[in-house]
Amino acid sequence: ACARRLEGMDMMQSELLLDPDTQTYTLRGGAGLPSITEITRFTHDDTAQTSNVLLRDAAAERGRAVHELTALYDYGELTPDDTPPEYAGYLLGYMRFIRDYAPEWEYIEWPVHNGVAAGTIDRFGKVDLEDAIVDIKSGTSLEKAGFQAQLTGYQWILARPCKLYILHLTKDGTYKLVEYQRDMELFEACMTLHKRSKKGRKQWKTQ
Questions:
Q1: Tens place of pLDDT per residue across the chain (207 aa)
Q2: Could you tell me the pTM of the whole model?
Q3: How many alpha carbons fall within 13 Å on the CB side of residue 29?
Q4: Residue 140 CA from chain centroid, whole number
Q5: Phi and psi, residue 122, nearest 5°
Q6: CA nearest neighbour of 108 among 129, 134, 128
Q7: Considering only CA atoms, which of 86, 84, 59, 83 is closest in space to residue 73?
């Protein structure tokens, strides 16, 4: 039954197109879908207003690099010797996580949707022998509500029970795996705010 569900999800996800430059999702028919990140933005600090632009851009670049490097490592296409020195610690932390937990990944950097919203799940597979969503973070933010809403959104798209984890990687080569609980009340509040904010913008444009 599990295999059939995943096969059905794969067929559905084949309709999804992701623009990596703008991080926007559309279906092959042309309809755009909001991302889980966009929907849950209300649970995050407004870094665009409160952070130094250079620091913010550097953090975004680091996040992209760490995600790419860890994915290449999982695919067997990267060794520590090939890693840029500024990111070596993050990869080392990921390698230690792999050593300690021996996860069995079914999907790596997996774009998913349910016709209402879309997102990219960093890792999906077995952790401690249980199905799990794992989202990789390389920043210093500890926004519990934001992480919880994001993970809940991914699970909502998959519509299946699984563990929810944030994997924090640090530049000193350590890691922390933190489990979160599904919170549909929080996610639904984000959905309501998202829908109302879109409606408000449309009304403002027509005035």
A1: 344 444 555 656 668 988 877 889 999 888 899 999 999 999 876 544 455 666 667 788 899 999 999 999 999 999 888 899 999 999 999 999 999 999 999 999 999 999 999 999 999 999 999 999 999 999 877 679 999 999 999 999 999 999 999 999 999 999 999 999 999 999 999 999 999 987 645 543 434
A2: 0.85
A3: 4
A4: 16
A5: -60, -50
A6: 134
A7: 83
Other Cβ atoms closer than 10 A to 157: 22
DSSP state of 30: S
Nearest of 108, 125, 178 to residue 150 by alpha carbon = 178
Cα separation of 41 and 147, whole Å? 11
Q: How far apart are CA 114 and CA 9, in angstroms?
A: 9
Token couple for 139 = 């920043």
Are 131 and 173 spatial neighbours (Cβ–Cβ below 8 Å)?
no
- Full 3-state SS string of 120-182: EEEEEEEECCEEEEEEEECCCCCCHHHHHHHHHHHHHHHCCCCEEEEEEECCCCCEEEEEECC
Work out whether the CA dihedral 183, 125, 20, 74 comes out positive or negative: positive
